[in-house]
């Protein structure tokens, strides 16, 4: 159950939809806390590799999830640094192979349960912006404002390609497109917490929208609910 005292804005959607960028921008603008829930699964996947835990060993993964040594370091104007066991893994968690591994561990019920309470611990004063795939449907079902951000598969692949290239990664656009399509299918059809808009979510297709246009629409949704003043 969510704490009504501390509002939560959930931004769900498929990979490459821009939800992480928007969530960070809104959190920074409002001075709210930020949760990149997808990073938790990527961090678990990396930790599994570090500790030689197989990705289908649900029991061991759940134990590892409950004891993850992680930290998010947010600096204004920059992407958050993600620290795993004292090491900066901000780039590693965005690699296609890490995303693929994360999508595999994310379907395991025991793992999701182990990470559920940890995610809810991010709900603190003055508020939280939670970015993920089941924030509005499972983790924060009582959030007053829920956004489902999407975009065409082609547009999302282009965005991820440019993002990784800017970070110096050697990536292939065609492979990224195939990877995103496979992840969409797996995420939308999994038995546990499938990717879908919450019944009361506002759906935004960002295919032909700028970041500022999406940002404004999200803030307008918060304003309409009386959670923020003029912006």
Q: Radius of gyration, rounded?
A: 17 Å
CATH superfamily: P-loop containing nucleotide triphosphate hydrolases
| Protein structure class | alpha/beta
Oligomeric nature of the chains: single chain
Q: State the total count of DSSP E strands.
A: 8
CATH class: Alpha Beta
For the biggest β-sheet, the strand order reads 2-6-1-7-8
Q: How far apart are the termini?
A: 29 Å
Q: Give the mean pLDDT.
A: 90
Number of domains: 1
- Tell me what the CATH architecture is: 3-Layer(aba) Sandwich
> In this structure, how is the largest beta sheet organized?
5 strands, parallel
Strand content: 5-15%
**Uncertain stretches:** none
Classify the helix fraction into a percent range: 40-55%
CATH fold group: Rossmann fold
Run of helices and strands: EHEHHEEEHHEHEHHEH
What is the 3D shape?
A: globular
Task: Tally the helices.
Answer: 9
Sum up the structure in keywords.
single chain, 231 residues, alpha/beta, Rossmann fold, 5-stranded parallel sheet, globular
């Amino acid at each position: 159950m969510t704490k009504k005292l501390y509002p939560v804005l959930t931004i769900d959607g498929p990979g490459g939809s821009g939800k992480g960028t928007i969530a960070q921008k809104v959190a920074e603008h409002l001075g709210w806390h930020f949760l990149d829930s997808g990073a938790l699964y990527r961090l678990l996947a990396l930790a599994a590799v570090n500790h030689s835990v197989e990705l289908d060993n649900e029991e061991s993964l759940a134990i590892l999830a409950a004891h993850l040594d992680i930290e998010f370091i947010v600096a204004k104007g920059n992407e958050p640094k993600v620290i795993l066991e004292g090491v900066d893994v901000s780039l590693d968690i965005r690699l296609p192979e890490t995303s693929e591994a994360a999508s595999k561990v994310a379907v395991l019920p025991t793992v999701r349960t182990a990470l559920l309470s940890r995610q809810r611990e991010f709900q603190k004063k003055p508020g939280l912006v939670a970015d993920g795939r089941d924030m509005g449907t499972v983790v924060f079902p009582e959030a007053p404002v829920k956004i489902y951000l999407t975009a065409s598969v082609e547009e999302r692949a282009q965005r991820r390609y440019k993002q990784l290239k800017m970070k110096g990664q050697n990536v292939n656009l065609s492979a990224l497109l195939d990877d995103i399509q496979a992840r969409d299918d797996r995420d939308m059809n999994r038995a546990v917490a499938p990717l879908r808009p919450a019944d009361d979510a506002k759906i935004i297709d960002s295919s032909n929208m700028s970041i500022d246009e999406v940002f404004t629409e999200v803030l307008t949704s918060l304003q309409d609910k009386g959670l923020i003043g003029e912006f």
